[in-house]
Amino acid sequence: MSHLFFTFIILLVSVLRLPLSVVFVILRSFSPFIKMRLDFERKNLIESASSPFAHSNQKADLTFLVSSEGELEQSRALIEKALSQNNLIEIIYSSPSVEGKCQKIFESHKVQVRLLRLPLLSASPFSFMYFQNVWQWVSSDVIIFCRYDFFPELLAFKFFNKKMILISGAFKKMSWFKRQSFSFFSYIVAATDSEKEKFHNLLHLPNNCLKSCDLRIPRIIERKNLAEITLQSKTEISQYIELLKQIPMTQKIVFGSAWASDLELLNRPEFISDLRLGKIHLTIVPHKLDEKFVFGLKQKIDRILGTGFVEILNQNNPFKNSAVTIFQVGGVLCELYSHFQFAYVGGGYERSIHSVLEPFFMGCAVIVGPKIERSTEFDLVKEVLSDEIHVLNNPNSFYTLYMEMSLNMNKSLNLNARNLAVVKMQKEMEELCSEIIHAR
Prior knowledge:
Helices cover 43% and strands 15% of the residues. By secondary structure, the chain is α/β, with parallel strands linked by helices. Helix 4 (69-84) packs across helix 20 (415-437). It is globular and about 65 Å long. The mean pLDDT is 91.
């Protein structure tokens, strides 16, 4: 009965999308956010990248649904494998943050790729004027969801006899809606082995339709192998990278994807003293790179350390060799981790920690804040090496943990176990990609 009720809701909401979209259009003049989102979605109507395959009498082989950059990275191995086999693919993305990377995929594969910004505010059961129907745009018979973008009109693809596949599936932040949504998928790739067991208990899918694999690992290893080349291409950081190479591993720390709340880790007299005296070099890569966010971090560090100890490194500011460097250069955090053995990953005092797979497989000991419940990456690292990722419930304990780890660094990092895990995961991913691409 519960499933029937859920199905009814999906159909009802999908049909009601048009009147809701009309309301959003009316409100467009009164809300800058609605106007910005509608303008974003209307690019679908004018850009060649969004022209449906059906307009040229073609049919896509696979359709991918992603939201964040992280979801695109989770899907990238499958996307690249499909493109290498001359498949036609459609990518639907809901967030403007991922548009740049999606556009790059299109630019390098214009014949094989089509892009659609998900019409959240201009959706309709049929297309006319500015209103868009995602059902008409999608031409493939296989829809691949990444993680959790379970919008009703997307789940409704099930009623069009589409094969629904979920990758990076997890029970994080479970709800009745999410639990019911899982039943729409006939093939699921869980994020971890423990998540796979939960799916098995809920859905009872056959073994050949339920797997576990993190699809980001090969991509991270590829970036690791090319790290120096990638960093060398950024001429504005060349002096900074040369300095990092000269500093012993036990005397430098990186804060990745840092928020202002993460800077509470600095509030320890011994840590402050070591930074001021140059005994430790700290690099901070902000979660956001806009001027307001970065300057806010600098102001807070100035209040903690005093003025003159922190610099902002970007295209306009040459490197000055300060005690603390705020790294305002995008796109190379993963590569940057290769020059450190101590990595604190931010977000643990906000909503959730950010990616821990990148620093972990780049060879770092990883430290995070307490908000780990939503992170399947944390679970995966714990499955590989449970004693090489550490949770700080109290930010003041960071310096103590760092000192303990630096004294035993040669013993504490089991790089061999990480390499073995990578080999195993790469093999699993190759098999998985082949299965999914030929699922139709």
